[in-house]
Prior knowledge:
Blueprint: H1 2-18, H2 42-61, H3 64-70, E1 76-78, H4 86-89, H5 97-101, H6 109-129, H7 137-162, E2 165-166, E3 182-183, H8 185-202, H9 218-231, H10 235-248, H11 266-269, E4 273-277, H12 290-294, E5 312-314, H13 316-320, E6 332-333, E7 335-337, E8 343-345, H14 346-349, E9 358-359, E10 377-381, H15 382-397, H16 401-413, H17 425-439, H18 446-452, H19 456-459, H20 484-489
Antiparallel strand pairs: 1-5, 2-3, 4-10, 6-9, 7-8
Helix pairs in contact: 2-6, 2-7, 3-6, 6-7, 7-8, 7-9, 8-9, 9-10, 9-15, 10-15, 15-16, 15-17
Amino acid sequence: MKKSIAALIALFILAAAILPGCSKLKETPYSAIFNNVFYKTSNDAEAALAAAYDPLASMYLGPSTIMASDFSADQAYPRIVVGRNTMTSFSYDANYTLQKTNARLYESPEQIWTSGYAGIERANLLIENIPAIDMDTVRRNSIVGNGYFLRAFYNWMLSKNFGDIPLKLKSTSGVGNAFTAKSAMADVYKQIYSDLDQAIPLLQSYATGTIRKGEPSREVAMALYAKAALYISDWPTAEAKAVQVINSGVYHLMPNVLDVYDVTKEDAARQENMWAFESESVSLGRHQNLTNLTGPGTFASVVYGPAGSGSMFVYEAFFNSFDPVDKRRLLMDTSAVNTAGVRIPQKTITPITPQGVLIKKYIDPSPVIAGSSGSNIPILRLADIYLIAAEAEARLNGATAAAYNFVLPVRQRAGLANLPAGLNQNDFINAILQERSWELFAEGDRWYDLTRTNTFLTVIPKAVNNVYPVRTPAARNRYFPIPLDEINANPLLKQNPDWQ
Length: 500
């Protein structure tokens, strides 16, 4: 049934896309999508919830969500192949032509748009239809809460990548509501706040122990609230929601930062990995491709796994920016062990990127299916929430004792002392932004820190190496262009001004 609903939606979208080209025929559409044969039982509700989560797999399989951010930023870069380097060189166009030419659309920002609106459509269906189903009340509320949470998440993903976006708050029932114009970012975030306000009382607390794998707890919704507020400089809300999560006491930092990413310890790591893309190595449709991308390439590795394309590396300068005693530095490496047990320097593995440093956050030595990794991708982590609280407090009140106390657990876990005492407000904020860079590297976060602080134009030209000796972002690169396919299909949709 889940597939039949998705097929109906896809069929309608296809019809809507071709209608503008046939407008001269003045045909009157008589069809619409009906859900009166579905959304009757608890099984229907569970199937609909699974369908609402499916777009996450499309976002993280490529994974376009990680590549759009990290290949644009100053931490990681790709091998110059199949169009993914256009984000690093800022040479993509409004049609993402090179990615399409090389069949790599799932690695393109366009995939974020496509998956985001597919997810919103399905979240809307949850919100509209699940409340009427006769089923266990707690579970029904949780599913509806998931719907509000997912709609907020998908809108947040879309807005931070594309700026002003269409707000789609009703499911598509016919041609009459198939098209939506863009809303200002302030209105998008107002809706994100509203959806999270709806989700929080409906979701269960992580303390109850009844949160199903891959679904958000009440505290996760608060964490998304805090991070959304961070992105629009709503410092009071960002701090208040982050403090709610911290003071709830139901999530904790893993004592060893390496264990956060250990594929064999993922159940235990959920105490810090509040919400993640739950990759499954038993299913090619639910795995992620980061393990393959970050593998050393040219040979199989007993550490990284049996597959690796050598396509994603850390800049050597970023690696060198870490304090040598920083335990997070161990999540990178300048060499790899092959299947013969021989350690080989990374610079000799492939001549394409001799300065490349390997990423060890997504290794999976023994996947069930070769080339399919079970290593989860963090989306919201408690360490991030501590740093949000620290930044928000500093933005509001300067480098207070509270701000220092928020960052302290993250630095202690890394094996470092707290930030130097006596920093002024600006220096403390810059230190927190640097801490975020070290803590969250290769997790699809850094580019948005640079764009929300409007520092990408000065930071990125310095992030170069022998593979990318010159990088010159323009002001228009702050947001990605809205895919031309979407503009051609929606007569109400206008391209971002800087891309017109």
